[in-house]
Amino acid sequence: MWDIRQLFDYWRSRPDDKDLSDTEIQTKLASLLLSICFIRINEAAEINLAISNIDYRNQTAILCLSPKANNSIEQYEIRRTGDPKVYPNLTLFTWLNRLYWHYGMDPEQIASLFWQSDGQPADKRRISLWLNSLLREIGIRGATAYSFKHAASTELARQGLDTTKLNIFTHHSVFSRAASNYYIYAANAGINDIASQLVGSHGQSYATQTISQQRGRTIERSNISTLPGCYSQHS
């Protein structure tokens, strides 16, 4: 199993999110959603922004998947770390702001988070191709896009995270059936601390400053430009 720290070090060496190309920032976002938020590739392709809870002022987001046949809705809170270069929340809002300001796509009105250059939503195959290319770029051979979560879980286990917290963090069933709802709540309260532990970061103050700067560019709903032809709205 490859070392997930190679992924985090790679993104630390790359330009800031705002300077990445569309494909690069989406690849980064997908890799962080898989490795830090433990979202599956097929779930990443099913994220529905129109029904997600996105708070631009406070820079928080709970991403929801399109409803299943039984009308249940799965949701994931996007985690924070202490490292502004490996920070899923910051990368997410940088991409959402680009969708709005550059392409005129209102995240509250579109169903997909990931997009191809032809204006079509990116499916799990496209996202997998991006991630496989990323692994080759980093120099990791013999691994696929489906290995990100396993690599991250392996690192947390290596760091000594106890089994119950590891299962909660990775969205697996709690190890002990006797675990109470209170314990699960208490463990969830430390989720962002675990995310910071995973990436090995110590830059919380800088990350907080970056969030404050981004809040100055919250989306104004009354000033949406016309969608470019190749980025027509999909629902």
TrEMBL record:
GO biological process entries: DNA integration; DNA recombination
GO molecular function: DNA binding
Record bears the keyword Ribosomal protein: no
Pfam families in the record: Phage_integrase
Species this protein is from: Streblomastix strix
Keyword field contains Kinase: no
PROSITE patterns for the chain: TYR_RECOMBINASE
Name of the featured protein: Tyr recombinase domain-containing protein
Tyr recombinase domain sequence ranges: 1-199
Source taxon at top rank: Eukaryota
Alphabetized UniProt keyword annotations: DNA recombination
